[in-house]
Write a structure and sequence with these properties.
Elements: E1 16-17, E2 24-30, E3 59-63, E4 67-68, E5 76-82, E6 85-87, E7 90-94, E8 98-103, E9 109-115, E10 122-126, E11 131-135, E12 143-149, E13 156-162, E14 167-169, E15 175-181, E16 184-191, E17 199-205, E18 209-215, E19 226-229
Parallel strand pairs: 1-4, 2-18, 5-8, 7-13
Antiparallel strand pairs: 2-15, 3-14, 3-16, 5-6, 8-11, 9-10, 9-12, 12-13, 16-17, 18-19
């Protein structure tokens, strides 16, 4: 499953944080049928364990938003190499973050990072379990970083680097949440490494309301989303905690 997007790129927004006198929330679900089917890996790692199935998570973000809430205070994210796979397979973060790359395999790996956000091609060799490399070279600019392993060609992942805070990675059930969004009309983007370009959906965000969005099969009618007043939940919609990066106690 290729990781590098082919038909588009992330671009800087010149984003600035401003005090918000009013805002809304976007919660939603990316229906698995909206994305291509995934053929899971049948490869066996040198650890004696098969590489885990590819993640069904997708990257979600609001395009073109140039002002709003402050950027995340946490400027560190974790990426694990485990059983010749990457967890998470999509890592979303902001410019200037430190990426901690962990090796949990008693196996040889040579991870290669390529993309606009990196200073240049970054190579990280690993040879034993418990190794960690912390790098700020992978998040210098907005864009995508493609991750491969020179020793395991089925190993793929991506890092998405933003200069604005309105992004999320869905959980395995496709759920996501974006809070403190300034009122207005926007385009919500949904992408996974096996898509040449994102799925786009128009959304309308109102002050003190929650926009509930279900992103169905590709080619379906775009929706601005159903809205409920703050504190209410639309029928059939569950609030969820968005997983943007794996958080681990080390």
């Amino acid at each position: 499953m290729a990781s590098e997007p082919k038909g588009f790129e992330l671009v800087p927004t010149n984003y600035r944080a401003v005090p918000l006198t009013a805002s809304g929330t976007v919660i939603g679900t990316v229906d698995p049928s909206a994305l291509p089917a995934i053929n899971d890996s049948s490869h066996e790692c040198e650890t004696g364990t098969k590489t885990p199935p590819h993640s069904r998570s997708a990257l979600v973000w609001i395009a073109g938003l140039q002002s709003g809430k402050g950027l995340p205070i946490e400027k560190r994210a974790d990426l694990d190499s485990e059983d010749c796979g990457l967890d998470p397979s999509i890592l979303a973060t902001t410019v200037g973050s430190t990426i901690n790359v962990y090796n949990d395999d008693a196996a040889l790996h040579r991870l290669v990072f390529k993309g606009q956000p990196a200073d240049s091609t970054v190579t990280m060799p690993f040879f034993n379990t418990g190794q960690v490399v912390a790098s700020e070279r992978l998040t210098k600019r907005v864009g995508f970083v493609d991750i491969t392993c020179a020793r395991h060609p089925w190993t793929h992942g991506a890092i998405a680097v933003f200069d604005q805070p309105y992004f999320a990675v869905t959980d395995e059930r496709g759920r996501f949440s974006l809070d403190s969004v300034p009122p207005g009309s926007y385009t919500l983007m949904v992408w996974r490494p096996d898509l040449d370009k994102p799925i786009e959906r128009k959304i309308q965000v109102s002050a003190q309301h929650t926009t509930n969005l279900n992103i169905g099969p590709a080619g379906g009618e775009p929706s601005v989303g159903d809205q409920t007043a703050a504190g209410e939940i639309a029928s059939g919609t569950k609030r969820s905690r968005t997983i943007a990066a794996k958080s681990r106690a080390r």
